[in-house]
Amino acid sequence: MPKGLSKEEYLAGQLSILRNPIIANIFFRLGLIEQFSTGIQRILAAYADSKTQPQFSIFENSIKIVLPVVKMELQGVSEDANVVYSILQSAPLSSSHISQETFFSKNKVLNLLEELIQKGYVVKIGNGRGTKYRRSK
Length: 137
Description:
By secondary structure, this protein is α+β, with helices and mostly antiparallel strands. The protein has six helices and four strands, in the order αααββαααββ. The protein has helices spanning 7-12, 21-29, 39-46, 79-87, 95-102, 106-118, and strands at 55-58, 63-66, 122-125, 132-135. Helix 4 (79-87) crosses helix 6 and helix 5 crosses helix 6 (106-118). The longest helix is centred in the C-terminal third of the chain and has 13 residues, at 106-118. It is elongated. It starts with 6 loop residues before the first helix and ends with a strand. This is ATP-dependent DNA helicase RecG C-terminal domain-containing protein.
C-alpha cells in the first residue's frame, strides 16, 4: 500500500499513486490497460448486483482481493432453462447436442429453448434438421 493512501481511498478509487510510471505508461500505450486507477471501481461495478461480493484484505505491504465466482442466472426463466442457457457458451448448438449435454429429453430441450427464445436470451438459427441455437448478443 502506498504511504498516505487510506483503505477507504483505495476502495473508492479516489487516488492513484503509480509505483512504476514507466511500466504503467508502456502498458497504457500497448492497450493492455484502459486507464489508470480504474481496477477497483470496475471490480465493484461488476459485482454490484451480485449476492456475493469481493473481499478486500489490505495490509501494510500488500493487498489481497478474493473474487468469488458468480453463477449467472437469468431472470424470469426456469432452473432447467438456466441449465440449457449455460451450455450455450460459444458456438451455436443443435437441440440434440444440448439434450446429450443436459440429459434432458429432446422435447424438454425444445420447450426450454422456446422459453429462452421468447424471453430474448436465445436465437434460433436455421430450420429443420440443421437448426442451431445460440445466445443472443
